[in-house]
Amino acid sequence: PAREEMVEAALELASVLRGEGVSTEAELMGRSLGKALAHVSARGIRYAVILGPREFAGGRVTVRDMETGEQREVGVRELAGWLRRTCSPGS
How far apart are CA 84 and CA 55, in angstroms? Predict the structure, then answer.
């Protein structure tokens, strides 16, 4: 997919997450993945959602736990619920 298509998909996903009550930022500055993740870490954000071409094609995202470095794939439709469950107190 073209960069514009990926940006549009990321903005749409961010909008859906916000609508589901999940606090969300979208990376639109064109930084490399490494620099974007460093920015996320510096801001103290626990989870980074990575939407790359491979994930986009499969209707999935990669979620990275910035504290542990663990990554997992989550379906786009399940993402908001997964984040709410994972981020809830006592999880």
Answer: 21
CA distance 13 to 53: 14
Cα–Cα distance, 14 to 17 (Å, whole number): 5
Domains of the chain: 3-85 (3.40.50.800)
- Torsion (CA) 46, 29, 81, 62 in degrees, nearest 10: -80
The pTM of this model reads: 0.86
- Return per-residue pLDDT of the chain as tens, 91 residues: 677 888 899 999 999 999 999 999 988 788 889 999 999 999 999 999 999 888 888 999 999 999 999 999 999 999 999 999 998 766 5
Distances, alpha carbon 27 to alpha carbons 20, 39, 85, in Å = 19, 10, 24
Structure letter (DSSP) for residue 33: H
> Strands 71-75, 60-65: parallel, antiparallel or unpaired by DSSP?
antiparallel
